[in-house]
Specification:
Helix 6 crosses helix 7 and helix 7 packs across helix 8. The protein has 13 helices and 13 strands. Helix content is 36%, strand content 23%. The chain has two domains: 114 residues, 2-Layer Sandwich (Nucleotidyltransferase, domain 5), CATH 3.30.420; 190 residues, Hexokinase, domain 1, CATH 3.40.367. It is of the alpha/beta class and 319 residues long. The radius of gyration is 20 Å and the shape is globular. The chain binds adenosine-5'-triphosphate. Belongs to the bacterial glucokinase family. It holds the Pfam family Glucokinase. GO terms for molecular function: ATP binding; D-glucose binding; glucokinase activity. Its main location: cytoplasm.
Length: 319
């Protein structure tokens, strides 16, 4: 790459397609977020973005996308876009096109961010342990990844942990999951810990309370929950935070991520101090004989804007 070269980078979620340019001189710049729903195909959104930033000559690109990337064919989990990597590369006349899972990219961003990009929620940071880091985040879906230390570098994991089976921690959650089973034979963590998850939780709670649910967006549920203006939204939001705590604690135990678990995605950073006071931390630690152990593990909410763009840029040096 020379100082004049410009690369295209993107973080494509089920709702938002975030684009930017990457160059040696300017780093990540010209960030624009486009609604996926406004474009029929990813190639149209990519061309629209490049048009918005003056159609620079771009020969290399790296895309982080919310799905499993296995082979040439990519199909998003929570949006209708699908494409062949090779065909997209030809359509865009790129010499190189890298495609990675979006939470792998988010994981790669962690070492590039600064302290001020994180808000700590419990645990302590005195530990000198060298352990993996966990990364989990709720947005349109639920993404999960990890960073494994290997000498001086970090190796990011590429998995689909959001689709692991959700586990209830109390009788109310058992009742909620029983309601969800009527709709989904497999209730994954993503079905309850995501934007759609807030809606599923709210509907299930209304059904259990014999109340007709209103048609509310995830944002409306969280706003009504935080202000306590609607008790069913308040319960849905607190259950969401508790279940996210369970998932994050499971991730810490599974990876041995004792140096920290990082929380990304579009929802939690918008909950502010509510999240710190929610059931999240209690449930993160509620792991029976490992409770004391988890009490030490710090959790960090990632507050940086579009952090996965900084991570996907790293893919050029790894490929
Ligand atoms: N304040 C909020 N409270 C609750 N949900 C919200 C809030 N703001 C946005 N959301 C929900 O978050 C989701 C979008 O999150 P995000 O920006 O992480 O999307 P994305 O990157 O497109 O998703 P993903 O990567 O998970 O596919 C939508 O479901 C939206 O309704």
């Amino acid at each position: 790459m020379t100082s004049d070269d410009v690369r295209l980078i993107a973080d494509i979620g089920g709702t938002n397609a975030r684009f930017a340019l990457l160059s040696l001189e300017q780093g990540v710049h010209r960030q624009i977020v486009l609604p996926c729903a406004d474009y029929d195909e990813i190639v149209v959104a990519m061309k629209a973005y490049l048009g918005m930033v003056g159609d620079p000559v771009v020969k290399e690109a790296a895309i982080a996308i919310a799905t499993a990337v296995v082979g040439d064919s990519v199909k998003m989990t929570n949006h209708h876009w699908s494409f062949s990597i090779e065909t997209l590369k030809q359509q865009m006349a790129f010499d190189k096109l890298i495609v990675k899972n979006d939470f792998t990219a988010l994981a790669m961003s962690i070492p590039k961010l600064s302290k001020s990009d994180f808000v700590q929620v419990g645990g302590n940071t005195d530990s000198q342990l060298i352990t993996p880091l966990g990364i989990v985040g709720a947005g349109t879906g639920l993404g999960v990844s990890g960073l494994i230390p290997y000498g001086d570098i970090w190796i990011p994991l590429e998995g689909e942990g959001g689709h692991s089976t959700v586990s209830p921690s109390n009788e109310r959650e058992v009742d909620i999951i029983k309601v969800c089973w009527k709709q989904y034979p497999h209730v994954s963590a993503e079905r309850l810990v995501s934007g759609m998850g807030l809606q599923n939780l709210y509907s299930a709670i209304c059904e259990l309370e014999n109340v007709e649910p209103e048609c509310l967006s995830p944002r409306e549920i969280s706003v009504l929950g935080i202000s306590n203006a609607n008790p069913h939204c308040a319960e849905a939001l607190d259950t969401f935070c508790g279940l996210l705590g369970s998932v994050a604690g499971d991730l810490a135990l599974t990876l041995g991520a004792y140096r920290g678990v990082y929380i990304g995605g579009g929802i939690v950073p918008q909950l502010g101090s509510y999240f710190e006071q929610s059931s999240f931390r209690k449930r993160f630690e509620a792991k029976g004989r490992f409770q004391q152990h988890l009490a030490e593990v710090p959790v960090f909410v990632i507050n940086a804007e579009n952090p996965a763009l900084y991570g996907i840029g790293e893919a050029f040096s790894l490929s």
